Amino acid sequence: MIVYRAVGNHLKAHKDEFSALIWFYVFSAVLVVAFFGFGLFYGKGSHLTMADYWRWFVVHLWVESIFEFFGIAVIAMLMVAMGLATAKNALRVAYFTAALTFISGIVGTAHHYYWYGGAAFWIGWGAIFSSMEPVPLITLVVRGLMEYQEIQKQGKEFSYKWPMYFLVAASFWNFLGAGIFGFLINLPIINFYEHGTYLTMHHGHTAMFGTYGMLSVALLLFSWRGLVDKAHWNDGILKLSFWGLNGGLFIMAFTTLLPVGALQTWIAFKEGYWVARSADFFERGFVVFLGTYRALPDTIIIVLGVLPLAYFLIRTFPHLKAAKIKDGESVWERLGIEL
What we know:
- With 339 residues, the protein is mostly helical.
- The protein has a domain at 1-160.
- The protein has 15 helices and no strands.
- The relative contact order is 0.08.
């Protein structure tokens, strides 16, 4: 209802590709709420097998299918709104991604089935389909980046530079964290030994924080850019925040989570899974050192990423534009933008 209230007037007055893209977005927002309902299918006293089955529907199908569906809807809309893609092309990519996401997301969830008593072949099928989802998304963002480069060559000013960069970051981490790292740990021979280790955390942090964290910042800055007076918009602070968030995440992922996860998986292979998950493993000197060292990337994320962004929002809040668009009036017509 919140989403529809903001776009309802446009949908009533227009029947074009951009309106279809908005409906696509509204539908994805509904599914984000609806698919979380699988978590209500089990409760106290449920058999572990059934509880785990529905739990992974929430943890994995919700994330790998519905969140991807929502993500492509948001990114497609922003690309069109920023003039970096046509509504027709964005809608094509959105439909293709949605079809691929639902097909691959449902089957991709199956790589968890083995761990609560399902057949072993589900690990292989799940690994293959789970890695297919991010591919179309990055093609749309690359297309948008190419359009931005053309705008730069023509010497035109582009007001949405940093919202676009955060979209590029979301696409990058989606492809790397969800796609590549997810595929690597889902390979049957690897998943058998690494399941539940720090390699899973490595995949989860880069996929969730990297993709949806950066996407959230992109949405925030896109909306904020239209609200704040141009004279008070500071790209320098946003540049610092961008590299603080992405640099800190990169250091955390590759210098702490990945080494511990690789060692933990090797211990599981050589000595047994129970040894890799025991308290003794986490008391080893190397693991303790990396656990302490992780304070560095965490500090970078907070001090150089979160705080500059918060400072930017607080500083620009007193300089919001006065309301000039009347209720029911098209923002795009006022701006002279053809969708």
